[in-house]
Amino acid sequence: MVGPRSWIGGLFNRSTNRRNDKYVDYPYSPLQVQRLQRLQERLQVPFDETRPDHQESLRSLWYAAFPNVVLTALISEQWKDMGWQGHNPSTDFRGCGFVSLENLLFFARTHPKSFHRLLFKEGGKRATWEYPFAVAGINVTFMLIQMLDLYSVKPRCLPGVNFVKLLGEDEEAFDVLYCIAFEMMDAQWLAMHASYMEFNEVLRVTRTQLERELSLEDVHRIRDLPAYNLLYQ
Predict the structure, then answer these.
(1) I want to staple 190 with a disulfide (CB 3.0 to 4.6 A). Which of 102, 124, 130, 176 is the partner?
(2) DSSP letter at 195?
(3) Please, which residues have CB within 8 angstroms of residue 21's CB and are 6 or more apart in sequence?
């Protein structure tokens, strides 16, 4: 069971508005700059429910989640089963754009076992009022964008700088980090015995933990993050 509509609506405004106060100057390589710019271009793409490619991506997400259930329409009460606020997911994407759908699709296609375990809340002792999977996923994307300072021309916060280094090693680093962050959030949810009213606090703790892992000296690739193993538990 997921939380009420009024809870979900304010997540973007409250969950991750804290900025990291440690700034560094780092000479990015041409490859790092190129990949950062490509990622930033992705962040500028709004979700457009009239675009055929966006419609197809949404259908693909449905069938990745429920391969044996026919989706009757792109606007349907069925979407609530995935944790959207209402019958039209496009209204939820307005908070973070097309990249949040890309993140969910990457998670579903690359780590289907982990994706379905979180979608169906299969692990641990769950709360009576659970977080809504899809909307939580959008908030994870939003949290990462803020934490990494990706709307700046060149991130200067320490987590952002360290992330761009990882991006230079793996162009899919943001999408992989999303999967890791979603897993970390769910693990924190269980560890804190949280319910829907505590989602913002769970996301805050997740961000703090992720910032800490990104600052480790022996992390040179996205797969070096300690929490990466959560994807294969």
Answers:
(1) 124
(2) -
(3) none
Spatial separation of the C-alpha atoms in residues 57 and 97, rounded to whole Å = 13
Domain range annotation of the chain: 5-232
Which residue has 């989706």 as its token pair?
A: 71
Q: DSSP code of 19?
A: P
Q: What is the mean pLDDT of the chain?
A: 91
Could you tell me which residues come within 8 angstroms of residue 228 by beta carbon, excluding any fewer than 6 positions away?
Answer: 176, 180, 222
pLDDT of residue 132 exceeding 50, the answer is: yes
Given a contact cutoff of 8 angstroms between Cβ atoms, the answer to whether 74 and 91 are in contact is: no
pLDDT at 180 over 50: yes
CA-CA distance, 147 to 208, in Å (whole number)? 9
What span, in angstroms and rounded, lies between the C-alpha atoms of 22 and 173? 22
